[in-house]
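Because discrete structure vocabularies remain unfamiliar, we first show an illustrative case, written as a sequence plus integers encoding its fold.
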Amino acid sequence: MSEMLFSLILFVIVATITPGGATTLATASGTQFGFRRSVPLLGGIAIGLASLSAIAAAGLAGLLHAVPALQLIMKVGGSAYLLWLAWKIASSGAPNANAKTSQSPTSFVGGALLLWLNPKGWAMALGAAASFAALTPNPLRLAAILGSAFGIAAIVSLVLWCMAGVVLSRALRTERHWRIANVTLAVLLALSIVPIWMD
């Protein structure tokens, strides 16, 4: 049992710390808005991942396998949402550069939607539920274990990525630097769509 718990901890750390759509968005938000204003987004992503993992462990995500049309709807909706977020990042300038533009960070709900509309997130959650089902025969207990593990790991990872964005923002001195950084982060976010369509 202790070996399986160690494997779960290692799995959730690797799954949450590696670059992807959520980590890129956390970095971009830290760069553009700072840590404090990014907290709702970080919370939304972490709660989204925790709830997604818990539902997958409870067995309710089997609906996605039973109704393939739902998978396509999620892919299209998730891709469109990520592309919209990427466009929003790419088109923003330096913070407060344009007083007429009222920019605001992605909300708590927007962060949760990032996970809930992402088939890659569902695949990861389902894979974790299948891989660690032997931890307990009780699906609700498994849901609590996986939800807690992913939620805690996501918070730690997202804080690190957001703080990396805050540090990056201090190195950006000119409008051109900001444009390059914003476009780079937007392209990385848009590229995170590719694995969604590779399945």
Summary: The mean pLDDT is 84.
